[in-house]
Amino acid sequence: MTSHTTRQRAAVLEGLAGCKDFVSAQELYALLTANRTRVGLTTVYRTLRDLEAAGGVDVVRDDSGERLYRQRPDGGHQHYLICRSCGHSRPVDSGVVEEWADHITAATGFTAVEHTVELSGICTGCQPSPPKDR
Amino acid sequence: MTSHTTRQRAAVLEGLAGCKDFVSAQELYALLTANRTRVGLTTVYRTLRDLEAAGGVDVVRDDSGERLYRQRPDGGHQHYLICRSCGHSRPVDSGVVEEWADHITAATGFTAVEHTVELSGICTGCQPSPPKDR
DNA sequence: ATGGACATGGAATTCATTTTCATCTAGGTT
DNA sequence: AACCTAGATGAAAATGAATTCCATGTCCAT
């Protein structure tokens, strides 16, 4: 029925897998194009959207609201700590938050509760290091 | 130096105060306009942006990425549980999450860590009510 | 009232994302 | 092998929030 495994989709998947950190659809498209992989921007967006729906990727939004995607490491969903300077991302243990979210759900009577948690900071490598005046 | 208290700004502030829940800049603009308050869309955006920078409002993004603003109830920042159906929002106690975020900060060496937490669900009033068979 | 610093807002611009739609393709069928 | 067709593709156009331009307006001190 759905989902043929086309050359294009495979390329998007592979491109995504090659990224350790979060990438935007635009970046991924540029990356693939630069790599001489012929894929349409529309297809990149479509594939990413489908992946998101299927739960194959984690998604965050950067400051400008642009969607950033990252292949999901393991089973359940993951939360990340992202460096605002270099963009490097690392998954963080969020068990506490999951429990908290469940608790809120139970306490409020709301159903189908979903949560988004985004952490950003400056990683050790991007620290304003040597206070070189100026 | 900055911030004259102009009629327009006051109107935006007042309009925002009159909203119990989150509103987008566009909605607020429409609301003010409908109220015969002459304010430019640009000014609404500007005022909201300034408010955000000054920490006077809490901001979330809806599914489409649109920014939604809500006057901040009290002191520190707040997290909310928003109904995806009617848009009603209620602040939730997020002490646990704050602690967790601090802990992550300490454990990773990242500095200037900021966090965004968004909860959404279906409130009791919007429940798919009568389970009219399948 | 005069000057200038800041504020305003309509129009134009930017830019990610989505739609449209004509065309192509995979892969099953005869 | 030739054929069919649901699904996939992608260039171009559309959408829409948010921002930038910039000419004009407004408040305040001198």
From TrEMBL, chains A, B:
According to the record, cofactor stoichiometry and binding are noted as:
Binds 1 zinc ion per subunit.
Q: Which UniProt keywords apply?
A: Cytoplasm, DNA-binding, Iron, Metal-binding, Repressor, Transcription, Transcription regulation, Zinc
Specify where it is mainly localized: cytoplasm
Obligatory cofactor(s): Zn(2+); Mn(2+); Fe(2+)
One GO CC annotation: cytosol
For this UniProt entry, the molecular function terms from Gene Ontology, in alphabetical order, are: DNA-binding transcription factor activity; transcription cis-regulatory region binding; zinc ion binding
What residues bind Zn(2+), as annotated?
83, 86, 123, 126
Tell whether Iron is among the UniProt keywords: yes
Biological processes per GO annotation: negative regulation of DNA-templated transcription; regulation of secondary metabolite biosynthetic process
Q: Which Pfam families does the record associate with it?
A: FUR
Stored PANTHER family? FERRIC UPTAKE REGULATION PROTEIN, ZINC UPTAKE REGULATION PROTEIN
In the record, the note on similarity to other proteins reads: Belongs to the Fur family.
Description of how the protein assembles with itself and partners: Homodimer.
Please identify the protein, giving its name as recorded.
Ferric uptake regulator FurB
Mind giving the lineage of the organism this protein is from? Answer: Bacteria, Bacillati, Actinomycetota, Actinomycetes, Kitasatosporales
